[in-house]
Specification:
By secondary structure, this protein is α+β, with helices and mostly antiparallel strands. The protein contains five helices and seven strands, in the order E-H-H-H-E-E-E-H-E-H-E-E.
């Protein structure tokens, strides 16, 4: 298992991991308008910009890309593991990597926590600091917490 920094050649892989995971997992927790919002939020343009800025990483196991994470200053973003590879420790590996990377420069880590991941972050010591509610398509709402972990 290894984590590599993504390059422009990895765009389609990162997009596929991100969009596949959102479409498979998020409908269990969010209404359709919120799921569509997540997919638009993680647009081609935002993924490409993050790759160009050197913020995106891929987790490879047995020559298969199974997950991705984006580290932007003290924030962890776009942490996704393909559904068929979840519950095998890949998400923990990506989160450990991102936390180590951030804590070399910052005292606090921030993450926008989706409902599916909130309990994972709480178990790791993250605490809610903000609550947000965004009206999306279909008169649906996207609700999420900003969570922080302090050194």
């Amino acid at each position: 298992m290894k984590i590599i920094q993504a390059t422009a050649d990895d765009f389609e892989t990162i997009k596929q991991i991100t969009q596949t995971t959102i479409r498979a997992i998020y409908p269990r927790y969010y209404p359709a308008g919120a799921v569509d919002y997540f997919c638009r939020h993680h647009s081609d343009e935002s993924i490409k910009a993050d790759i160009a800025s050197g913020k995106v990483y891929l987790l490879c196991d047995d020559e298969m890309y199974v997950g991705t994470v984006t580290v932007s200053r003290n924030g962890i973003n776009r942490l996704f593991v393909l559904p068929e590879y979840q519950h095998r420790g890949y998400g923990r590996t990506l989160l450990d990597f991102a936390e180590r990377k951030i804590l070399t420069q910052y005292d606090t880590i921030r993450i926008d926590a989706s409902f599916p991941a909130k309990q994972i972050y709480r178990k790791r010591g993250y605490r809610e600091t903000e609550y947000h509610m965004i009206q999306t398509g279909n008169d649906d709402y996207l609700c999420y917490d900003v969570m922080e972990l302090r050194k």
